[in-house]
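User: Some background: our group keeps a shared notebook of sequences we're curious about, and every so often someone picks one and asks for a predicted structure to add to the entry. Today it's my turn. The entry only has the sequence so far, pasted here. Could you supply the structure so I can complete it?
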Amino acid sequence: MTGSLYPAARQQYERDGFAFPLTILDPAEVATCKQAFEQVEPRLVAAGSKSPHKQCHLCFRWAYDLATHPTILDLVESLIGPDILIHNSTIFAKPPRNPAFVSWHQDAYYFLESESKMVAIWIALTPSTPESGCMRAIAGSHRRGRLPHVSRPHPDNMLDFSGLHADLEINEAEAVDIVLQPGQISLHHGNVLHSSNPNDSDGWRIGFAVRYITPDLRLSTPHYAAVLARGRDTLGHYKLLEQAPTANIESGVASYVAYRAWHNTVLAPFGRRRPQAEHPE
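Assistant: Of course. Here's the predicted structure to add to the notebook entry:
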């Protein structure tokens, strides 16, 4: 490990459950990633996907390289240790003047442990501001552990297959806007409550979220391949991705279509059932 969170950022993360902004990508790297996404996004839509686009790191080399960026892994290692799995990723792309939102939730809700060894990073490829619907979080909420959730489906909720929503009253006035410029990232704890509002700006808001876990963390839902990003996995709770995706777009789209089929037949029905059964409204 060559780098870690500087003291002020670590203090913020431990106190609030999130830390931002941290500049990771230079303008050229941002342009390369944004161009790669813009090239493939129409293909994903044509294949039946809509934003958010899930698990692109399993299908496209540029997304895999971004999720395994050494500096990002250094930051993650400083928080959860040297053995790191990439459990999942999501590209949140909100077009201009779009009503899409993300309901209040915890990323670690589906993990069995309440004190989750999980950290998420959110990489801005365009400005992420209150006007464009940036992520918002409740400072200190990660210390409350795993909270009950319910399913509240809504056509504009980007948590489309479950409508997952924390089952408690949230004071919106307490929310902190996680404002990022292109190339900057935020880190947040798996148990921190967060959401985002619609994009009311005239530009796109594109962000790439990646969730990192330790190999001992077990999931209570069906799962797909995990990426061993650093260190070792001696427990075998997850099937590991055997090789990184290639740079070939056609191959990546085919892999994504296969993932979508699995998601729609296995994961989506499970996700629609579970929050309602465990915490009925």
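Suggested note for the entry: Residues 115 and 145 are 6 Å apart (CA to CA). The longest strand covers residues 84-94.
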